[in-house]
Amino acid sequence: MSSPLRLGIAGLGTVGIGVIKIVQKHAGLLAKRTGREITITAVSARDRMKNRDADISAYRWEDDPMAVATADDVDLYIELVGGDNGIAKESIEAALHAGKDVVTANKALLAMHGQELAELAESLGRVIRFEAAVAGGIPVIKTMTESLAGNSTTRVMGVMNGTCNYILTRMESAGLPYEAVFEEARQLGYLEADPNLDVGGIDAGHKLAILSSIAFGTRVNFDAVEIEGIERVSIDDINRASDMGYRIKLLGIAQMTPRGLEQRMSPCLVPADSPLGQLAGGTNMIVVEGDSVGQIVLRGAGAGEGPTASAVMSDIADIARGIRLPVFGQPATGLKPAQPARTAVPASYYMRLELQDKPGALAKIASVLGEAGISIDRMRQYGHSSDSSVPVLVVTHKTTPEAIDFAIEALPRTGVLVSDPVELRIEEV
Ligand SMILES: NC(=O)c1ccc[n+]([C@@H]2O[C@H](COP(=O)([O-])OP(=O)(O)OC[C@H]3O[C@@H](n4cnc5c(N)ncnc54)[C@H](O)[C@@H]3O)[C@@H](O)[C@H]2O)c1
Ligand SMILES: N[C@@H](CCO)C(=O)O
Fold first, then answer.
1. Which of 16, 148, 343, 348 has its CA 20 to 30 A from that of 393?
2. 162 lines ligand 1 (CB under 6 A)
3. Is 9 strand, coil or helix?
């Protein structure tokens, strides 16, 4: 058997402790599978005295992650501190310069600085692995870089934030408004320390930017992701969408078009009976479409101790086996800067309009949609609400985002709306 692979772990929170538990529990299995013993030499976190769910007394304690990253008796640096800059980035850079490979779960850091870190690692002959950074326990990075290496990816999409999926499915199942379920999610400990990372779509946007880079051979460009969170999704829209056979999901979609790379994270309608429509609770789902393989669907836990640590361990095992791949699947210096493109692929749209109940109101709406070049597929008028307005739902035939923007701006000028119109894109999945 080769010499042991000695780990240094910075960050002993949910994921760090999960990794330690697997190393302890599956030492024999891991050694058999990788041909090397996997050991832990040093660890670091903020609070040495904290009560932890794993025995760390056998490992050297360092107050500073930099000491772990650069220690002579560490072969592989595991960064599980988090944060898109600061000590996470500095310690990874220090580890690479000190001749160590790196495993991280840090999607924010990779989305913001992935290109720079990949170029550094590859110039030094080191690897950075990050299976846990996207969709927790789902092996999507390995699938895309290795299993689908023979494909040109045409589209990658999915539900990449479990907290948002929990909130949206719970709103529907319990009939509760967004604010009430948001508070529930907070009490259950599902939300990030800054909840806007979840509900603002930013965390999921980080993940989409990473997947885009692998899918299309482009430099990670988080700033080019069009992002809209779930804050404006109302229980009314969830219920009305359901009546029309749809569910609302925070959906990320990346596709290369002749105009450039579209990357969008936004609430969309998907058919209720589709795999994405059926996805409930905190589960994630990634759909990848390749020119040879067709469509594949990966589903599983996107967060939590066990699933995320499982993904970190798969990276550790690959490094123990001597598998060395470029960070984003091909050499970082060869990744192209993608021309960002605003979403232009035509789609059907859902519109909810609260109308004054008076003669001609519907005709005025139909006329604006006609002027915008939008053709109506289905329309449904509900009974009066308490303020005697009437909700009207429209599902359009395929149209462009520009036509929808035109209609959304023009509709209030009809004078028959009692509140702002709501529009949501319907995705074919
Ligand atoms: N928790 C999940 O389900 C999950 C899923 C996927 C990815 N991730 C990513 O994994 C990483 C870790 O997440 P987590 O949930 O375990 O976080 P956590 O908050 O539970 O743990 C963070 C750890 O880092 C330590 N730390 C923070 N700042 C430090 C500093 N300056 N010096 C030393 N130690 C410091 C803390 O003491 C703590 O032990 C993050 O990048 C996160 O985005 C987490
Ligand atoms: N906040 C993230 C954690 C995993 O990245 C989620 O809810 O999916």
1. 343
2. no
3. strand
Q: Give CA–CA dist 418/183, Å, rounded.
A: 29
- Among the listed residues 50, 207, 364, 398, the single catalytic one is 207
Q: What are phi and psi of 108, to 5 degrees?
A: -65, -45
Q: Which CATH architecture has domain 348-426?
A: 2-Layer Sandwich (3.30)
pLDDT digits (tens, 9 = 90+) for 351-408: 999 999 889 999 999 999 999 999 999 999 988 766 678 999 999 999 999 999 999 9
Q: Domain-by-domain residue ranges, the chain?
A: 5-104, 140-302+329-334, 348-426
What is the Cα–Cα distance from 8 to 315, expressed in whole angstroms? 14
Q: Given this structure, which CATH class describes domain 5-104?
A: alpha beta
Residue 149 in tokens: 């290496």
Q: Which amino acid residue places its CA nearest to atom 23 of ligand 1?
A: 11
Number of Cβ within 10 Å of residue 160's Cβ equals 30
Do 5-104 and 140-302+329-334 fold alike per CATH?
A: no
Alpha-carbon distances, residue 148 vs 136, 201, 215, 384 (angstroms): 19, 27, 9, 53
Candidate from 15, 130, 163 with most ligand 2 atoms within 8 A of CB, to mutate = 163
Q: Whose CA is nearest to atom 4 of ligand 2?
A: 303
Hey, how many other C-beta atoms are within 10 angstroms of the C-beta on 383?
7
Ligand positioned closest to the Cα atom of 103: 1
Nearest CA to ligand 2 atom 5: 303
Give me the percent of the chain exceeding a pLDDT of 70: 99
1 pLDDT above the threshold of 80? no
- Give 14 Cα–ligand 1 centroid separation in angstroms: 7
- 142 among known catalytic residues: no
* pLDDT computed for residue 429 by the predictor: 86
For ligand 1, say whether the CB of 18 is within 6 Å of any of its atoms: no
Report the pocket of ligand 2 as residue ranges, CB < 6 Å: 136, 161-163, 192, 198, 203, 302-303
Q: State whether the beta carbon of 210 lies less than 6 angstroms from ligand 1.
A: no
pLDDT confidence of residue 385: 67
Quick: pLDDT tens for 208-251.
999 999 999 999 999 999 999 999 999 999 999 999 999 999 99
Q: How far apart are the C-alpha atoms of 127 and 387, rounded to whole Å? A: 62
Query: What pTM does this model have?
Result: 0.96
Ligand 1 center to residue 87 CA distance, Å? 12
